[in-house]
Amino acid sequence: MLNQDLTSFDIEQVPFSCYGADIAFSRIINGPEQFIGHLGLRSLYGLFSDQETYPFILLDEQENWLVPDLQMCAVELEATSGQRFMRMCFHDDQTVHMQANTRLMLAKTELRGFLSDRVMQHENGVWEIAGDDGSIRIRVHKGSIISRSGWSSTGKVCEKIEVLLLPDAAGQLDFCFWYAGLTSIEPAHISYMNDLACRRAEYEEFKRKFTTSLDKYTETMELAAYISWHSVVLPEGYIKHPVMLVSKNIMNMVWGWDYAFNAYALVDKQPELAYAQFLAMTAMQDEFGAYPDAFHARREVRSFVKPPVQGFFLDKMYRLSP
Q1: pLDDT tens-digit profile of 23-80?
Q2: CA-CA distances (angstroms) from residue 147 to 102, 119, 183, 201, 311?
Q3: Rounded alpha-carbon distances, angstroms, from residue 276 to 9, 32, 269, 293
Q4: What angle in degrees, to the nearest 10, is found between the helix axes of 218-230 and 192-207?
Q5: pLDDT for res 205
Q6: Distances (CA, A) of 241 to 278, 296, 297
Q7: Which of 65, 320, 317, 21 is nearest to 179 (CA)?
Q8: What is the mean pLDDT of the chain?
Q9: Which residues, at least 6 apart from 218, have a Cβ–Cβ distance to it below 8 Å?
């Protein structure tokens, strides 16, 4: 990895994402058997395990699938198999910059028979893999792209999404993709190293106040900083203020009292973000003042009302950062 001096995290425990992103990367653990163990991009607009998932698969010259070793720090993820590698960092909260020295296949784990599932090339050279919750748009800077997706005999339903990304003659593959909803604006292209440096500076500034004088807690504070940073999503849909999801793995929602614990943990480090946790939940009150059990940008769950812990935590927060 290019950032060996940063603390490494276990992707089996925490996903790879960034502040504000509605996508996350992790090893695929459910779905069609052939994808299990490979690296997958998940859309966090889904609910729990029902998240649209797009595997990124390393291939050799014979197009054999290679299950990679995964290594990550806060700002970079690398998948390797022998001398073959794929690495990535975020350009912004919607855009990922990727490099590889081998062939890659991008697929989708589940096609639901909707007309939204399709692959197309636009006139400006951008490729789009459209899904139900959003679409992936790809701009290749070095290398090439081939679609092997297939439609039904009636031409009404896409039965397979499979896109190959190929290195150029020098063995280099460099591309960006961004996850978009109804509107899509192509991001400006800068070098991978510049993208990496920007994300690192952003992360270092965020974690600056996550400190401890006790050496035995140093790694714990590093993990706390990354969890707090990457778990945030930005205002969209039901979300009216920047707020932390309980997780960008399965529990990908804001929950009816967990947010108060998050806020209390943040108040001495990121007070504005801490109080935003309460504002985000307050914006979801119904006409009777009840909070939802859980919500994210696209969906809400109103099945239980949690114990009223908000006043307890607000009192403690006011004493630390009124």
Answers
A1: 999 999 988 999 999 999 999 998 888 899 999 999 999 999 999 999 999 999 999 9
A2: 17, 7, 23, 36, 55
A3: 27, 39, 13, 18
A4: 110
A5: 96
A6: 9, 11, 11
A7: 21
A8: 93
A9: 212
